[in-house]
Amino acid sequence: MTNETTDAAASRLEEALGHRFADRALLLRALTHASWANEHPDRPPHNETMEFLGDGLLGFLVGELLLEAFPGAPEGVLTRLRAQLVSAPAFARKAAELGVGEALRLSPGEERAGGRKRQGLLSDAFEALVAAVYLDAGFPAAREVVRRVLGAEAAALRPEGALADDAKTALQQRLQAAGCRLPAYRVVRREGPSHRPRFTVEVSCEGEPPASGEGTSRKSAEQEAARSLLARLEERDGEGA
Q: How much is the pTM?
């Protein structure tokens, strides 16, 4: 994409967020991947450290949303509900809805590799955007953006189903009921900066090809892998019905 195309996409993104940046350089930095910055001799700043700040802001602000929506829910349920919203897959889906991919500044190589649709890049940029809003206009503005883009999803969660959303437990129970051995998890890849690692985990069980999942922690990646394997098993059950 040309600079003009990504700049136009960045302007549309401001409208989707409901925030017009006073310092547009913050918006552009949030949308700048390290691959783009590394190809420019002046090495402009990219979004990795902003991801770190955005991750912390999102964890707090989503927690605040959930406490307001479900004031009587116990801590364990709230933690599981938050994990459904504060995750790389959830952030990537929301970023795609907002049009973040079209606004990213990527190197030609990353562009050819499909970076505009990659879950990791979209999730990271979403976190960086929340940080950019905070740096541009303060905490109230960041809170307002998070409420605008994630409020409906938070209100639609089901506290009564939160425990069932523990995919690892659900997979273990299913395999035990079938008389199978417990699933085995292993980390097959760890990448990203030390302050913001990304894990890929495979889960395997007897008679099944491995399934994989990604996350910003080993635990979250294990949950995604378990969820992927469960979905495959349930799809097969449906075909055999």
A: 0.69
